[in-house]
Amino acid sequence: MKSDDTTCSSSSSSSPSVNSLYGSYSDHFPIHFDSIVLNDEVTAKVLRNAQKRMNKSSILPYYDSLLATSEDIGEIAHHEVVLDRMLGHGSFSSVFAIKKIRGRKAHKYDAESLVVKVLRPKLSLKPSLMAACAADIVMEGMLLSTLSHKNIISIKATSPMGICSFANGRHDAYFLVMEKLEETLEDRIQRWQSQKHKTLFHHKLKDHLMLQEQIQVLTQLGDAIQHLHSQRILYRDAKPANIGFDKDGVLKIFDFDVAKILPDSTDPNEMFQLTKRTGSPRYMAPEIAKGEPYNLKADVYSYSLICHEVMTLKKPFGTIASAKHDQAVFYDGVRPEVLKSWPRGFVNLLKRSWSTDVVGRPTMEEAIKILQTEFTIMLTIKTPSRKVFNIRRPKTAPIFVA
Ligand SMILES: Nc1ncnc2c1ncn2[C@@H]1O[C@H](COP(=O)(O)OP(=O)(O)O)[C@@H](O)[C@H]1O
Ligand SMILES: [Mg+2]
């Protein structure tokens, strides 16, 4: 994939024209069943604003600096993809399974293990929002192609031409091809909840196995965020809906459209004035919500709420009415209740991590180190004794001696 610092033009501007870029669009299989055609004026606006947004971000120099060391990902054209059913959607994009990849490169891909992420058609009604989302999905593709970590979603290909692809006047001009995930952390938490409810009697062995799974999830998530931070990437949208598992159960963080590359700094407490209220309010650090400067530690805040949710299976602030949430959480400092049974070190870590005092908040690296110890303590405390393992063993028949 090439860097997107080139200037591209829409069909309404002088050159190149849509046809010189694509031939006739109708020759190509549209990526989306409801592919929307934007008029020339809207297309020009989308292109212009999207390019401005990309030029303002730090992605272009960052991407170029890593180009030589990044894995070269492929390009797949619209007509080479046959879409299957929709797997899910967020506010601005939809994700589809792939039935088939056609053409010369078909043998390189296992279509059934891949998905396509593309913008939602409704965006075409709002050109300014469409432009912002167009830039964001292209930047997401560029950022993902620089990342390689077992707990971060892997991108396999994109459509050609980056932001310039939107010159064809289609809402679905650009798309990402990524590995397929089987369930999200949100789904898994629900599964754990129903497992708990099904067990009428407190079953120590089952609890212990679930605890092991919960700890594994939090460890893998911590590793993913720590890797991003080592690359100066602030993820900004950590929440169970953006965390998934592949067919082997390996955790993968995905949805990088609001991730931000921060300037280099050796001071973990240096703050940066960045966009206000980015992310999802339930997991958003107070400094982001209030429009104050922030840094990588905003992800540590979100991580601590996810830790609490994974351990208690309860949504953070789930009992606060949404109209009251901002005042309570961002200004009055309301936080989830910690359990008495948790080790003190774990409780202290949560409290420091979700504190409004950013300087006192640990870095992700520090948090991971503390958690390694705390998780070991939790597993030791909760390890069922041999007696517990034996509880359900069938009793051997009594032996009567004549
Ligand atoms: N790689 C994937 N495999 C399977 N489903 C996915 C994948 N990526 C995303 N999804 C589904 O699509 C939804 C929207 O994707 P996401 O990247 O979060 O889009 P948005 O940026 O609009 O939030 C996700 O919540 C999830 O249900
Ligand atoms: Mg999402």
From TrEMBL:
GO terms for molecular function: ATP binding; protein serine/threonine kinase activity. Keywords: ATP-binding, Kinase, Nucleotide-binding, Transferase. The keyword Electron transport does not apply. Residues 81-376 form the Protein kinase domain. ATP binds at residue 117. Gene3D superfamilies: Phosphorylase Kinase, domain 1, Transferase(Phosphotransferase) domain 1. Coiled coil: none annotated. InterPro entries: Kinase-like_dom_sf, Prot_kinase_dom, Protein_kinase_ATP_BS, Ser/Thr_Kinases-Pseudokinases. Pfam families: Pkinase. This is Protein kinase domain-containing protein. It comes from the Eukaryota. It comes from Cylindrotheca closterium.
